[in-house]
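Sample intake — HAD superfamily hydrolase (TIGR01459 family)
Collected from: Bradyrhizobium yuanmingense
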Amino acid sequence: MTALHFAEGLRELVGGVEVVLSDIWGVVHNGLESFPEACEALHTYRSRGGTVILITNAPRPADSVQRQLRKLGVPDETYDAIVSSGDLTRLYVAEHPGRKMFWLGPERDNSIYRGLEAVTAPLEQADYIVCTGLYDDETETAEDYRGMMLQARERKLTLVCANPDIVVERGDRLIYCAGAIAELYRELGGEVIFYGKPHRPIYERAMALAGERQGYQIDRKKVLAIGDSVRTDLTGAREFGIDCLFVTRGIHAEEFEGLDQLDPNSVMELFGHPPKALMRELKW
């Protein structure tokens, strides 16, 4: 199947849908401001009995993500719960007490180990690496870390990637994320553990929270994912066995100009397997 369905609004797609698993960055905000119509769409869906779980590759715990959402003007009523790759990474750190961690990332992400009995150490003494991002994502790329990653590979260190995204939007620019460093390390032969989309654990956690809200185990046929990344959102939903609404205003915006005029071969090249539906931006 290569046909593309362009939806006018979320209302067309949620008949029989009990749970929406929505991406955050690129769907409800762009890192600088919220998207009011998207927030209203999710709130309206909730008001009609649906459950909304926000799933994000943010390398911070859910409470930290919520504080950011509030600052950007995303109302708490937009969602029921948040699951972040940071939450799952914190579980990994908690389950490895006494092991020395080299933390690679900006100071704003220090909540990744705050409150845990984590022992931090220089790369030369560490037992594993936790990567939450680049030290300076405004000016650096993954290539700036090649030397560090070669050193880590020589020591056979496992790198735990707390954000599998390669890039995200920040306003009208694309900023490199931890996933870019993790992919470089993997190319160099290093071992990487990914937490977050498109990997299964974040979806399992989200479904567990949705089941708690609804009071019963949710059938995946009654779940809709929403996202703006082919690599993480669309791939993750497909591999987990749930439908996906793809928002084209996000990181792939330039690639999707004139999308409605694409031939089937071009559709397959872009998506692999098309999403359930597309919208330029999320609205009811």
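Post-analysis note: The CA atoms of residues 56 and 84 lie 5 Å apart.
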